[in-house]
Amino acid sequence: MSDIPPSVPPSYTPPPPSSDYITPPPPPPAGGGGSDRTLMLVLSYLGILALIPLLTKKEDPDIQWHAKNGLAMSIAFFVFFIVFNIIAHFVPFLGCALAFIPCVVSIAWLAVTILAIMKAIKGERFRIPMISDFADKM
Predict the structure, then answer these.
(1) pLDDT tens-place string over residues 17-55
(2) How far apart are CA 46 and CA 74, in angstroms?
(3) How far is CA 36 from the centre of its chain?
(4) pLDDT tens digits, residue range 101-132?
(5) Which of 71, 66, 99 is nearest to 84 (CA)?
(6) How far is residue 133's CA from residue 61's CA, in Å, rounded to a whole number?
(7) Using CA atoms, how far apart are residues 101 and 85, in angstroms rounded to an integer?
(8) How far is CA 13 from the centre of its chain?
(9) Is the pTM of this model over 0.85?
(10) Which residue has better confidence, 49 or 138?
(11) Which of 15, 29, 54, 73 could form an S-S bond across to 67 if both were Cys, CB 3.0 to 4.6 Å?
């Protein structure tokens, strides 16, 4: 005789999965809130976009602190480039000799911004000595 197993009848339907296999949704983040909070923390360090959480989330002191800190970082970065360009314009040889400084400062600012965003999402604060002190006074 043959070794082929009998086929499953066409009217067979598998049973529905039990509730044991369904995983519950993940719990909300420790700080409360949700994706809106995470979005506001990221926006806090993206230059002029820091005004969005600063003006819309006035009830959350943590988001306010990060928004003020991010805005102060952006202002410091902007002021540095204005001062550097004025110096480079009036002292031509100094401007040519130090042309690499804006690139180094831009890369450092990007690294600090990414680090600050990562710490903010984890619920921590990243303090930059003079800039964070200025932000606390705002």
Answers:
(1) 655 555 555 544 455 555 688 999 999 999 899 999 999
(2) 8
(3) 12
(4) 888 999 999 999 999 999 999 988 888 888 88
(5) 99
(6) 16
(7) 11
(8) 48
(9) no
(10) 49
(11) 54
pLDDT of residue 67: 93
SS (H, E, C) 47-90: HHHHHHHHHHCCCCHHHHHHHHHHHHHHHHHHHHHHHHHHHHHH
Tokens, residue 116: 């600050």
| Structure confidence at residue 96 (pLDDT) | 73
For residue 117, give the DSSP letter.
Answer: H
Residues in contact with 74: Cβ distance below 8 Å, sequence separation at least 6, in sequence order: 47, 48, 50
CA distance 43 to 45: 5
DSSP result, 19-42: GGGPPPPPPPPTTS--HHHHHHHH
The secondary structure of residue 99, as a DSSP letter, is: T
Whats the size of the chain, residue-wise? Answer: 138
What's the pLDDT band for 1 if we cut at 50, 70, 90? low
User: How far is 116 from 42, CA to CA, in rounded Å?
Assistant: 9
Q: CA 116 to CA 131: how far, in whole Å? A: 13
